[in-house]
Amino acid sequence: MYSIFDKLLENCNVGCNAGDKLTGTVVSMDKKLVYIDMSLKDFAILPRNEVSLTGENAEDVLPVGESREFLVTSVSRRNAQPTLSFKALELEIAWERARQQLEDNVVMESPVVEATKGGYRVDMKGLKSFLPISQICPQYLIGELVGKIISVKLVDVDESKNRCVCSNRKAVAEDEKSASTLAALKVGDVVSGHIQNVTGFGAFVDLNGVAGLLHVSQISNERINTTAGIFQIGEPIKCMVLALDRERGRISLTTKKLEPSAGDMLRNRGLVMEKAEEMASLFRERVAAAEAAVRTEKSCTDTSS
């Protein structure tokens, strides 16, 4: 009777299919594989590179005796031995976590792990998110960005298209409670920012999410023929607000008015930055004095009439 029963068990194929999620227990492992007991005819195999989404060792993630759920990725036709993945289930969780973080508008501190065309890859606990260069605050572009940890916020998550996009700019704007805004600025104000872009006609300065133009004619009292070599992307800079167009959202900046001596922006920029507030104050005093003189002259003219 026992021999008949054993034969029936051998002929009985209690199998599984690719895509199934099954629970099993880790029984052993070697240099390439982890062996999982799933109460099948033979142990299921889990390649080590399918253990962890973040690259952790199999011994740390799945110690012998541990029972976990696994995803069946394929089944051998010859011996019905399934191949498993634990990483695939972690990836499902990572996508779900990303969707929730997008919905909750969460700001995260994440490491930049790779440079790619048009931007960088940011690691969000195993899920790689694309960070476009246009979405990086310029101060982070000084030196090597790979390896740094920066603030990011997810802006697009679509698992069906394998698309996960984040923004450093939006995250920083969220954190900057005292960020300068267009509505709060006045002509004569000294503002601190970072060089965002350099063109033939000047430099754009990022003022905590608000962009201002430092025209080539407003860089220095000394004549400048080209902007080449004057600024570095991401360089911190102080400027004075020269003009505002709130309807068009435009800010004109100057460092020319902050120079203690002509040419200091080219040869002694540190001094210009150090004296910025003092020079701006003198400029405002001169403007106020000129406006007072005009009012006095107008008043005298009206009286004599």
Summarize, please.
The chain has helices at 2-11, 58-61, 87-104, 168-175, 264-267, 269-274, 276-304, and strands at residues 21-29, 33-37, 44-47, 67-75, 82-85, 107-116, 119-124, 127-132, 149-158, 163-167, 190-199, 202-207, 210-215, 236-245, 250-254. The chain is α+β, with helices and mostly antiparallel strands. It is elongated.
Description of the molecule:
This protein has 305 residues and is of the alpha+beta class. It contains seven helices and 15 strands. Strands 3-2-1-4-5 form a five-stranded antiparallel β-sheet. The chain has a five-stranded antiparallel β-sheet with strand order 8-7-6-9-10. 25% of the residues are buried.
Question: What is the tally of beta strands?
Answer: 15
Strand content: 25-35%
- Annotated CATH topology of the largest domain: OB fold (Dihydrolipoamide Acetyltransferase, E2P)
Q: At CATH's second level, what is the architecture of the largest domain?
A: Beta Barrel
Q: Please count the helical segments.
A: 7
Strand order of the largest sheet: 3-2-1-4-5
Average pLDDT: 84
List strands and helices in order, with pairings:
Blueprint: H1 2-11, E1 21-29, E2 33-37, E3 44-47, H2 58-61, E4 67-75, E5 82-85, H3 87-104, E6 107-116, E7 119-124, E8 127-132, E9 149-158, E10 163-167, H4 168-175, E11 190-199, E12 202-207, E13 210-215, E14 236-245, E15 250-254, H5 264-267, H6 269-274, H7 276-304
Label this structure with key terms:
alpha+beta, single chain, OB fold (Dihydrolipoamide Acetyltransferase, E2P), 15 strands, 5-stranded antiparallel sheet, 305 residues, 7 helices, 34% strand
